[in-house]
Design brief:
The protein is an alpha/beta fold. The protein contains 20 helices and eleven strands.
């Protein structure tokens, strides 16, 4: 391993993430490149703190180069999120290993499961399970179990499941990346801290007073400064910002949104008419057929009017931060995609790039309204390239 790649949200960046970067170096990585989500995240919502704060935290903890996952891919299914991250890291032309945490800590069974999901024998089994009305994730695990019980186990543990999606993306894209799974450290999703590590979900539900010891000290200082500036997510502001957009939409508008099928536009329109908060909206939309996470993403896509037709993979590489070593690494890249720190220049590179950049900017603008103190719009176009100076170990 020469150059390690990591795909993450860092919502927030905590000691488990810092351990992963350090572990990649201990295992031989000369540099670490991170593909990081903007201010919308895969679970269908907004990041607790803005992108720039999370990127700085990663750089302070040892990341050398950070690229941005455009919003339409960051707030999408696990399959799409993983495919986008793999495409970006492979597109740099210098990353040779994808490092990720998993419950198994072994990439071999995850690769085998990924191959099974693309086996022609799997599709009819999945179709049969879906016909019974099961949510997709459960139907997929049951279908996989009919071919391989061990594969099914990889599809129920959250980090293993994402690891399978990374492996599947590598195989489908024929990406020159070696998957390297390392054991996930500490507590699981929503669980109390364990072994000195807290999960991101546990941290998000608590004030900064509870974060000490679970996030790097330098990151905690960044977080405190951001909270003082009013940049923490306000759930009430998010309710108002998203619902106000949804209430201005018609059933026909909902029908054109990504992921809307099987009459979901009618269910969405009826729920929007009644809901007074996002949690109430999710509750009204809840049904056996669709997972909660899918419905959350559907709501966000509707608010952003994300269309059904999008480029399958990100059409550009946006650089958002680097250490001194990362700047030197950029000279070694052989990018397969247009690469720049400026979103406007990237948007002008193709029609596909213009579409994705516009949707990305709209998502960042909506997220800016959802802070405790609403932030100005057009932040996606103005965001500077963040530099980490090794001499003083602080962003400049």
């Amino acid at each position: 391993m020469q150059i390690a790649g990591i795909i993450a949200e860092y919502d927030p960046f905590h000691k488990g993430h810092a351990w992963q970067i350090a572990q990649a170096r201990r295992m031989g990585a000369q540099a670490v490149v991170c593909a990081v989500s903007p201010d919308v995240v895969q679970r269908g919502g907004f990041s607790l703190l803005p992108q720039a704060v999370r990127v700085r935290a990663a750089l302070l903890a040892g990341a050398d180069l950070v690229v941005e996952i455009p919003a339409p891919y960051a707030a999408s299914s696990a399959e799409q999120f993983a495919a986008a991250g793999v495409a970006l890291l492979a597109g740099l032309g210098c990353v040779d290993t994808l490092v990720f945490g998993s419950e198994t800590g072994d990439a071999a069974p995850l690769l085998e499961t990924a191959r099974l999901l693309d086996d022609p024998a799997f599709a009819p089994l999945l179709k049969q399970q879906l016909a019974g009305g099961l949510p997709f994730a459960r139907a997929r695990a049951r279908a996989a179990a009919q071919l391989d019980e061990k594969a099914a186990a990889c599809l129920v543990r959250p980090n293993d499941l994402l690891g399978v999606e990374y492996c599947k993306a590598i195989l489908r894209q024929k990406a020159p990346l070696r998957p390297l799974a390392i054991p996930r450290q500490g507590a699981g999703h929503q669980q109390p801290p364990e072994g000195g590590f807290a999960s991101a979900s546990w941290l998000r539900d608590r004030s900064l007073d509870h974060w000490k010891g679970y996030v790097p000290d330098e990151a905690l200082e960044l977080y405190r400064e951001a909270v003082e500036r009013g940049e923490r997510l306000s759930r009430r502001s998010a309710d108002i910002a998203v619902l106000s957009r949804l209430r201005a939409m018609t059933t026909a508008d909902f029908a054109g949104v990504r992921g809307v099928n099987e009459g979901l536009e009618h269910r969405l329109a009826a729920a929007v008419a009644k809901a007074g908060s996002l949690e109430e909206l999710y509750s009204l939309l809840k049904c056996r057929r669709y997972a909660h996470s899918r419905l959350r993403r559907l709501v966000l896509d509707a608010a952003l009017r994300v269309p059904a037709r999008l480029p399958a993979l990100p059409p550009y590489l946006r650089l958002v931060g680097a250490s001194d070593a990362g700047v030197r690494l950029l000279r070694q890249t052989a990018p397969a995609l247009p690469m720049d720190a400026g979103l406007a220049r990237l948007a002008s590179s193709s029609a596909a790039a213009a579409q994705v950049a516009s949707l990305h900017s709209a998502a960042q603008d909506l997220a800016a309204l959802c802070r405790e103190i609403p932030q100005p719009m057009a932040g996606a176009w103005r965001m500077p390239f963040l530099r980490q100076n090794a001499a003083n170990h602080a962003p400049i």
